[in-house]
Amino acid sequence: MKKYIFYIIAFMSLQGLIIAQDQIFKKDNSKVEAKILEINQNEIKYKLFTYQDGPTIIIAKKEVALIIYQNGTHEVITAAETQVPHTPSVIYNNPINYSYNEDSIKKREFSNLISTKNIVFLNIIEPLNGSFGLSYMREFANNYLHAYVPISAGFATPYFTQAVNTIFSGNSYSSSSSSSYFSISNFQFKTKTYEVGIGLHFQTSGKRKVTHFVGPYVGVCQFTGSYDKTEGVYNPINGYYSSTSFSQNTFTLNRTYVMLDNGLFIRATKNFNIMLLAGVGYHIDNYTSADDLTKASNFNKTQFPINAFKFGLSFGYRF
Description:
The chain is mainly β and 319 residues long. Helices cover 12% and strands 53% of the residues. The longest helix is centred in the first third of the chain and has 15 residues, at 99-113.
């Protein structure tokens, strides 16, 4: 009696396993979704489930380990069964381990995600700072390394760069002598002409969808801007300097970055990837203008050894 009760419970539990197609599990750990037409003493005849108008495929039973029929019943194919006519049945006393199939499926899914190595990203944060940027990434070394090459050009005032430059560099300078004086102030960035660089990043996991990465970055960029210059002479009568001229001049700033990048790389789908990046480091400035601006920008008085920052949230197409 207990035996029959066991069969009834097992049969009821299999009702939730109903699927739309037959499944053939081969002994080489591969799986075929099929429409089985015939099973005889030595062969199995079927059509691909996704191409039922296609040719009939014949496979030897000795190559098959398991069949799961569309109604949920399981049939284990063994050597002894090759002499027995086909009678689909549910096997309850022979537990089956499907873990090897799950592992192989996961490996195939990840291999599909990294089947191509090139990605082009668009940084959606960069327009907030007045520029438009694209970057190219190439994975290599079994996906444990990638090369990163960003390129950007400005279209508006880089407000964030301007704020950071004011904090870390200062924006005024004055000098006087017994007969004259001048002051330089009110530095303003107008546009970022360009930026280009290259980074080499190590990825902590080459075998997962989400990986952390870290590595060095070197880049160069150019800004254009303006500053105010006031000049005057000493008046011995009242003992004050009097202003004689005021002008607004322009400058070109060439900046070199040396930074350490850090972030997350997400291989969301085969063609869609996401990158979150934050970098910190040091920049070196070289001004071109009618005046010596190195003092005006506190060139030799940097308050912190880290004066460069970079952030990015990029969406990419993998190809």
